[in-house]
Amino acid sequence: MSDDRQKERLKELLMKPENAVCADCGSPDVQWASINLGVFICIVCAGVHRHLGVHISRVKSTNLDSWKETEVEMMEQSNNAKSNREIYENTLPKDFIKPTFGDSIGLKEQWIIAKYLNKSFTPPDTKDAKRINFDVKEGWITKKGEVVKSWKKRWLRLVDGEYLYYYKGTTDKVECGTISLRESGQIDSVSEVDSKPYCFIISTPKRRYLISCNTGEEMFRWIQILRQCASQLSKQPQQQQ
Ligand SMILES: [Zn+2]
Predict the structure, then answer these.
(1) Where are the beta strands (DSSP E) in 104-198?
(2) Ligand 1 mean position to 177 CA, how many Å?
(3) What is the 160 CA–ligand 1 centroid distance (Å)?
(4) How far is the CA of 102 from the centre of ligand 1 (A)?
(5) Which domain does 197 fall in, by range?
(6) Which residues surround the ion ligand 1 when the cut-off is CB under 5 Å?
(7) Does any domain span residue 130?
(8) Structural domain count, the chain
């Protein structure tokens, strides 16, 4: 009886426009919640939250699990839009492209880790916040060769917001190759390839590049930076020859 009442209250909360979409990926299918973080999420993001552990996120289904009155009250104190605006996405960079439900699980994972575990986008005075420096546009990666399919350590550098050069060394003048982002298609994480962690792909009309990063955060940073560039380039008209 009491549980029915709590379910009713949760249903009312989910009807609010502020809770219409998943707090993390924007999916319209919202049936889960993180009680301690105070956000409603979709089943996919709920899986990622659960993976972080209950010390970070306590996940419950809004219709399958039973709820205490105090837990529902906690959810009533905020809503997705407000939590994101005032806390978890408060300091998102201006041009940030938020991952969506169509993106890979690997990218969602890093996004959710950045948001809640590292508190990367919380208000400026937040203690223990681990920020991501999106202004760093170079770093070590390993890249899978096209002809010889081995992984090679390369120094990756974004130039002019359009070209990704890769070098053998950080001070090399001559690059091993260039990736143009102007006609790039998909830029997203992919599941482990050849036991390499934190892999992502850049699809171009010529070729599909496969890159592995040292950490999830580096992969997240690269994907975000490259997506921003690709988005900017797609808005610019093609230069006339
Ligand atoms: Zn979601």
Answers:
(1) 138-144, 151-159, 163-167, 177-180, 187-190
(2) 37
(3) 33
(4) 10
(5) 138-235
(6) 22, 24-25, 27, 42, 45
(7) no
(8) 2
- Distance (angstroms) between ligand 1 centre and the Cα of 69 equals 25
Ligand 1 centroid from CA 130, angstroms: 22
Cα Rg of the chain, angstroms = 21
The label of the residue with tokens 């230069």 reads 239
- Indicate the residue among 67, 85, 117 that finishes a domain: 117
Query: 5 CA distance to ligand 1 centroid (A)?
Result: 26
Q: In this structure, is the dihedral angle defined by the CA atoms of residues 162, 194, 97 and 156, taken in order, positive or negative?
A: negative
CATH number of the domain enclosing 6: 1.10.220.150
Q: DSSP 3-state assignment of 228?
A: helix
Q: What are the pLDDT tens digits along the chain (241 aa)?
A: 578 899 999 999 999 999 999 999 999 999 999 999 999 999 999 999 999 999 999 999 999 999 999 999 999 999 999 999 999 999 999 899 999 999 999 999 999 999 999 999 999 999 999 999 999 999 999 999 988 889 999 999 999 999 999 999 999 999 999 999 998 999 999 998 899 999 999 999 989 999 999 999 999 999 999 999 999 999 887 665 4
| Chain centroid offset of residue 170 CA | 28
CATH number of the domain encompassing residue 196: 2.30.29.30
Same domain, 111 and 144: no
- Residue carrying structure tokens 């906690």: 74
Q: With CA atoms as reference, report the closest residue to 76 among 26, 33, 23, 30.
A: 33
Q: What residue type is assigned to position 112 of the chain? A: I
CA 202 to ligand 1 centroid distance, Å? 23
Separation of alpha carbons 234 and 241, rounded Å: 18
Strand, helix or coil for residue 200:
strand
Q: Is residue 228 part of a domain?
A: yes
